[in-house]
Amino acid sequence: MEKICWANTDDFDESEFVIVGIPDESQSHALRKGTEEAPYKIRLVSNLRDSYERNGEKSLGRPFLGTEKKVYDFGNIDRVEIDEVYDRISRSSKIPISLGGDHSITRQIISSMGNRFGKMSLVYFDAHPDFVSSTKNYYGSIINDVLVNVDINSSIQIGIRTPEQEELNNIQKYNLEVITPFDIQEKGIKEITKTVLSKLGDKVYVSFDMDCIDPSFAPGVSVPVPIGLNSIDAVYLLKEIAKNGIIGMDIMEVCPSFDVKDRTSHLASRIISEVIYSSEGM
Question: Residue 20 in 3-state DSSP?
Fold first, then answer.
């Protein structure tokens, strides 16, 4: 297996960030299939487009600002291994960056990390609220499924633009703060960033569904929705959140078989680099 180009150590113990692939879409109901290919494709594209060879030596197209961190690529794991692997990562005070797979994987990651961190602030980037409560344990019920591990008062959703009525009812019931693409357009990214950072607690987990970004920037997702975030606003927000410290992050729902010239996988690779270089850790 090819490692992501941002991996720069073969020593788990010395790493600060751990890349984990979870190529599973078994709980997805999307018409588009293929998110299980994303961990492989994101790694491959990172090496093809963010890594260069000159005079026999490898050079990265790194972020313009920020400092390099020690990154270890754990490889891929099965869904049933999540508890064991994330317990090891959490006990070692390292920050996991997970590559899905369908978004339901986030539920298991948060559940596992909750054993160490307790209730956490969740920043949930998505076109969909994923707050269905009439059914459980699938990619549309994640927020309801993780309520036991999440401090809803210090959590926030970003990019939402296609909620079902049931989800709107639950958002109102739990008073969950939501930022839409229209809010960013109206108030500007700096004002929105202040709102987000003031909301969060000291244990922040970021879940990033690539469909939060408009399909013009990220066409290769399993459930694309127009009128989304532009890529600069999304990554700017991520960088500012990372500067304040995160305990973990995932990137979900990249669907390579529906991508256009690997644009979405490449954007995912760039997102990972910007978060790592910006992060102040836990």
Answer: strand
Q: How far is CA 56 from CA 43, 48, 52, 53, 60, in A?
A: 21, 15, 10, 6, 13
Rounded distance between C-alpha atoms, residue 203 and residue 20, angstroms: 20
Both tokens of 217, joined, read: 């920037």
Half-sphere exposure of 279 (CA within 13 A, CB side): 26
Write the pLDDT tens digit of every residue in 166-208.
999 999 999 999 999 999 999 999 999 999 999 999 999 999 9
When the pLDDT of each residue in the chain is averaged and rounded to a whole number, the result is: 95
Contacts of 64 (CB under 8 A, 6+ apart): none
Which residues, at least 6 apart from 172, have a Cβ–Cβ distance to it below 8 Å?
none
Domains for the chain: give ranges and CATH numbers.
12-278 (3.40.800.10)
What residues contact residue 85 under an 8 Å CB cut-off, 6+ apart?
A: 20, 74, 77
Give the pTM: 0.96
* Residues 119, 211: Cα–Cα separation, whole Å: 26
Distance CA 166, CA 130 (A): 10
Q: Reduce the DSSP state of residue 272 to 3 states and report it.
A: helix
Mean pLDDT throughout 106-121? 96
DSSP string, 150-187: B-GGG-EEES-----HHHHHHHHHHT-EEE-HHHHHHH
Write the CA distances from 155 to 85, 230, 240, integer angstroms: 25, 22, 16
Sheet arrangement for strand 156-158:
71-76, 17-22, 95-100, 248-252, 204-209, 121-125, 156-158, 177-179
Residue 8 tokens, joined: 């720069």
